Amino acid sequence: MRFLTAIFLFAVMSVSPVWSADDSTPPATEKSDAQKDMDALAQAGIRQALEAIAKSGGMYPFGLISVDGNLQVVGYSGAKEEAPDPEDWAKGLFMKLRQIGNEQPEVNMMSIYRLHEIENDEGEKVVGVWAEVDHREVRPWVIFIPLLENEDGKHEIGEAIYYATDQPLFEKRGE
After folding, report:
1. Which pLDDT score is estimated for 173?
2. If we measure between CA atoms, which residue out of 157, 159, 158, 163 comes closest to residue 50?
3. Which of 6, 60, 62, 113 has the most C-beta neighbours closer than 10 Å?
4. What is the mean pLDDT of each run of 10 residues along the chain (175 residues)?
5. Judging by DSSP bridges, how do beta strands 155-157 and 138-149 pair with one another?
6. Any signal peptide, and if so, which residues (predicted)?
């Protein structure tokens, strides 16, 4: 497997305030800066994944790493016909990201994105974008964005499902 690391500088994402001084009641919990950074990383990666799906009807697993707010893409760079099975590639990519996290202490956030299929409560298969987002100082979490087929046979973005994970990309946490 070959990895291609390309640097993409993303424009600073504007974050709308969760609560303003004009509101009479503050929110139950404020997100830390690290959590806000994780949200921005997830949004950038999910946006890239959804653009790939809209353009080509699918996506191949990829990762994003962040060094001081600058994002780098980690993805497959070989010939399409020689590409490994996406599931195998995703496993190898996970391990490559872990290696990067172990060897490059300047990397403070990482994420991985892939297509994933789940079964809903009615037993139907639902495909969507699965992402794991990790930060050296915050517990990692997973997000699943379902792509739901509407009455016209087109896919729409469903409600995001978030959950914590015990399989971090960073083996070495911040000190």
Report:
1. 67
2. 157
3. 113
4. 29 30 54 92 95 92 94 91 93 96 95 94 92 94 93 89 93 68
5. antiparallel
6. 1-21
Phi, psi (deg, nearest 5) at residue 86? -55, -35
Q: Say which residue the tokens 């990762």 belong to.
A: 63
pTM of the model: 0.80
How far is Cα 51 from Cα 70, in angstroms, rounded to an integer? Answer: 20
What's the CA gap between 133 and 168, in Å, rounded? 9
Q: Where are the domains of the chain?
A: 3-12+32-164
Tokens linked to 166: 């015990």
